[in-house]
Backbone:
């Protein structure tokens, strides 16, 4: 029987020593996750309970046009709220009533905590319970924290989905649950591949609409699509679901390993798997090869930002021929990213957490060909002559599965091509 599992290197990084740093961090806050979640969940609304700074962040990140009516907003905490001169709960109730009266299409309302609401100890969990009783059964109100005090920007999605898990209905149906917010085009591709293999039924969390919300139970098998869903995975396991262990579907190899793990769980034979995946696998390899011409033998350094760093390092080193100098991640949960660590050959520094000044020193000493980091670090490093890639772009861009594998590699190749072009122009001048 043919085995589609990737061959690991002689020595992987699962048991490699981890450099744990606890210092100043340079990351976006968890509110940023609203930008992709509100597009995914068609009848949900995300109400940030925060300051004008929170509102400006979301408007800037989303690029919302003045005549658009998005499915997120900010309940502004004014000075009188922060000083305790007004009842914040009464004002919140009034804003929610006004919102739901104006937007009868809303079926799920998320109260999203921020730094200001947490500083004044506003209990949004109790507010959500109170407002659910008030607006049920038409609207369910949930809450989670997107505060930058405690979260990096992808943890906003994790906190949101984790808040949903306790409310999911019970089911004994044997099913596959795909967990993680994927762009619709990517989700459709995943569902199409699984359908062609005969894997059914397949549900998604988050669902597009509240009426499509999946159930969960002891016969639910979970395939994570994002490596940052630590709390969500733990909550699903508490509900009895079983988590599949697989590399994440980045690149041809990662996608094949992820799909093969699912296929084996649901009894798909190797011939069927090959029939469904051979053509997209070939397209992915061809698309990756075009970008790999630029990436091969180049070094890369990851600052901790999105929690995609370990799967991406696996993809870039194994499929694009790059050398990883350091792979930093905000948190490392080996239950979730262990399969990717198994495939990542030993050599790079594996770092968890951040002390940004110390990590900048290591990056400058290494002088990698490409540095993956947040927006706050990119411009300073570019001014020092170093090519950078914005980590946040890897979350906003469709990068999963076969048809996006070439685009994923291209995201890393473009900064190097741009750097080479600018160097050529400077030399000609």
Residues:
């Amino acid at each position: 029987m043919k085995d589609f599992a990737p061959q690991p290197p002689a020595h992987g990084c699962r048991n490699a020593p981890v450099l744990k740093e606890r210092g100043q961090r340079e990351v976006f806050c968890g509110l940023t996750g609203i930008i992709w979640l509100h597009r995914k969940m068609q009848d949900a609304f995300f109400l940030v309970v925060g300051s004008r700074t929170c509102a400006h962040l979301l408007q800037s990140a989303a690029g919302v046009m003045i005549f658009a009516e998005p499915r997120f907003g900010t309940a502004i905490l004014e000075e009188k709220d922060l000083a305790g001169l007004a009842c914040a709960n009464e004002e919140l109730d009034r804003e929610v009533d006004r919102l739901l009266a104006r937007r009868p299409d809303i079926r799920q309302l998320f109260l999203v905590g921020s730094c200001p609401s947490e500083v004044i100890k506003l209990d949004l969990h109790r507010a959500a319970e109170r407002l659910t009783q008030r607006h049920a059964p038409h609207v369910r109100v949930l809450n989670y924290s997107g505060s930058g005090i405690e979260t990096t920007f992808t943890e906003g999605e994790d906190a949101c989905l984790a808040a949903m898990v306790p409310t999911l209905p019970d089911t004994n149906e044997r099913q596959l649950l795909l967990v993680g917010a994927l762009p619709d085009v990517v989700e459709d591709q995943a569902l199409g591949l699984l359908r062609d293999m005969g894997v059914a039924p397949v549900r998604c969390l988050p669902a597009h609409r509240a009426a499509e919300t999946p159930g969960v139970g002891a016969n639910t098998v979970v395939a994570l699509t994002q490596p940052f869903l630590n709390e969500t995975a733990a909550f699903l396991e508490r509900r009895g679901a079983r988590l599949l262990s697989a590399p994440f579907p980045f690149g041809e190899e990662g996608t094949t390993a992820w799909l093969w793990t699912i296929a084996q769980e649901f009894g798909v034979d190797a011939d069927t798997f090959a029939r469904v995946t051979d053509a997209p696998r070939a397209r992915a390899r061809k698309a990756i090869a075009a970008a790999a011409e630029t990436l091969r033998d180049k070094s890369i350094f990851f600052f901790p930002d999105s929690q995609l760093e370990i799967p991406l390092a696996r993809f870039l080193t194994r499929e694009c021929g790059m050398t990883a100098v350091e792979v930093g991640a905000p948190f490392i949960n080996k239950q979730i990213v262990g399969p990717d660590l198994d495939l990542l050959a030993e050599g790079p520094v594996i770092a968890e957490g951040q002390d940004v000044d110390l990590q900048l020193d290591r990056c400058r000493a290494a002088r990698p060909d490409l540095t993956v980091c947040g927006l706050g670090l990119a411009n300073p490093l570019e001014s020092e002559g170093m090519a950078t890639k914005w980590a946040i772009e890897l979350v906003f861009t469709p990068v999963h599965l076969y048809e996006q594998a070439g685009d994923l590699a291209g995201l890393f190749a473009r900064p190097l091509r741009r750097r080479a072009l600018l160097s050529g122009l400077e030399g000609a001048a």
